[in-house]
Design goal:
The chain is mainly alpha-helical. The chain contains nine helices and three strands. The protein has a three-stranded parallel β-sheet with strand order 1-3-2. Helix 7 runs parallel beside helix 9 (223-239). The chain starts with a strand and ends in a 9-residue tail after the last helix.
Length: 248
């Protein structure tokens, strides 16, 4: 029997109309579109809660927020609540979580500690990212003004570092059963990303914005491509680890 392997990729604050495979011709998301074309693309999706932490709690526990304790952001899950990581780990399946967690009762960035059930060797939340930066870099990492810095590199961003860890996990665990979660904070505000993505949608106005004469910015500049490019790297790692970035 071939190994049972799941890679669960999440982005944050990315609407349906910010992905090309759902029919918006202005959105250039070739890597997400490729994933959709090779799998199942759902036409409808529903959330039990429109707030980040509670919605995540339901996804990773299979229980409602009012049951698991995360009925608002920064509320921790109850000690008697098991995540899918714990349940699969108890059944001998390797589980790893890389990226934004938002379920430990800490602030937006998390506590930097690996929860039970997930492999601590690969755990990497936003607190761990901040601890890699200098105090000056931490402030810059939360400022959209950084997008105008010509010296900004992809390697500086949280998403790129998450992708690096995901690729290392895929390289090391090709022959075993696993669940790998890659949870990007991007394109959540302040959506820091390097060129060419930072200015790709600088003057873009959606049809909805034009119809209602809304201010520019229905789509945040650079969002549509920056995260899909990061996603291409673990995807490439899954198909052919030496394959170059597929974004264009």
């Amino acid at each position: 029997m071939p190994p049972r392997q799941i890679v669960f990729i999440m982005t944050d604050t990315q609407r349906q109309d910010m992905v090309g495979c759902y029919g918006n011709p202005d959105m250039h998301t070739p890597n997400l579109d490729r994933l959709a074309g090779q799998g199942v693309r759902f036409d409808r999706a529903y959330t039990c809660q429109p707030v980040c932490g509670p919605a995540r709690s339901a996804l990773f526990t299979g229980t409602f927020p009012h049951t698991n304790g995360v009925w608002a952001n920064s509320n921790p899950m109850g000690d008697n609540i098991k995540t899918i990581g714990q349940r699969l780990h108890d059944r001998g399946i390797h589980t790893a979580y890389i990226g934004k967690w938002h379920l430990d009762g800490g602030d937006y960035f998390g506590l930097g500690r690996c929860p039970n059930g997930w492999d601590p060797a690969y755990w990497y939340d936003m607190r761990n990212y901040l601890e890699e930066l200098t105090p000056e870099e931490r402030l810059r990492s939360r400022s959209p003004a950084l997008n105008r810095d010509p010296n900004l590199t992809a390697e500086f961003t949280f998403g790129h570092r998450c992708s690096d860890r995901a690729i290392r996990f895929l390289e090391a665990n090709q022959g075993e059963d696993f669940l790998l979660v890659v949870s990007y904070d991007e394109p959540h505000h302040p959506f820091v990303c390097p060129e060419p993505y930072a200015s790709m949608f600088r003057d873009y106005r959606s049809a909805v914005a034009l119809h209602h004469q809304q201010r520019p910015g229905h789509v945040r500049r650079g969002d549509a491509d920056a995260v899909p490019r990061a996603l291409a790297r673990p995807c490439a790692g899954r198909d052919q680890l030496a394959q170059p970035d597929l974004a264009h």
